[in-house]
Amino acid sequence: MDVTTHVRLARPSRDLTLAERFYVEALGLDVLYRGTASAPGEHDLLMVGRAGGHWHLELVATDLPPSPSTEDLLVVYLDGPVPDDLVERLLAAGGERVSQSEYWDRWGVTVTDPDGYRLVLSTRGWRNTPAEG
């Protein structure tokens, strides 16, 4: 693998319309792909991310309730303050502001998506550098 290797994170969703409203309209991600089930065993899905990026979040429609834990985090490093209007948009799109932990409460804002998965908007930056041994 190298820095151009693509990464997909897949999660179940009870309502792709609500998920799109949260991740695309409120957070500002792009719809990269939308699929409709056309055969038994297939599912509707929505892939969101940033056009040209090397990652995407795949949301798969399911009738089963998602079962996120408090440690299922999608962290977005903003490298600066979390805009109040961004948090307001996420809340208006079905999110709920929650306390994650002392660490994340100090370094950002945590909002659950409509399926209960946690999105952390971090004020910190992130640089991919090798770990020192």
Summarize this entry quickly.
With 133 residues, the chain is an alpha/beta fold. It has helices spanning 16-26, 84-92, 102-106; strands at 7-13, 30-35, 45-49, 55-61, 73-77, 96-98, 108-112, 118-122. Strand 3 and strand 4 form a beta hairpin.
Account of the 3D structure:
The longest helix has 11 residues, at 16-26. The protein has helices at residues 16-26, 84-92, 102-106, and strands spanning 7-13, 30-35, 45-49, 55-61, 73-77, 96-98, 108-112, 118-122. It is of the alpha/beta class and 133 residues long. A four-stranded mixed beta sheet has the order 1-4-3-2, with helices on one face. A four-stranded mixed beta sheet has the order 5-8-7-6. Strand 3 (45-49) and strand 4 (55-61) form a beta hairpin.
Q: For the terminal residues, how far apart are their CA atoms?
A: 21 Å
- By DSSP, the count of extended strands is 8
Strand content: 25-35%
* Sheet of most strands: 4 strands, mixed
Helicity level:
10-25%
**How many helices in DSSP terms?**
3
Give average pLDDT, whole number: 93
The rounded Rg comes to: 16 Å
In oligomeric terms, what are we looking at?
single chain
Helix and strand element order: EHEEEEHEHEE
Structural class: alpha/beta
Unreliable runs: none
Which of globular, elongated, flat, extended, rod-shaped describes the shape?
A: globular
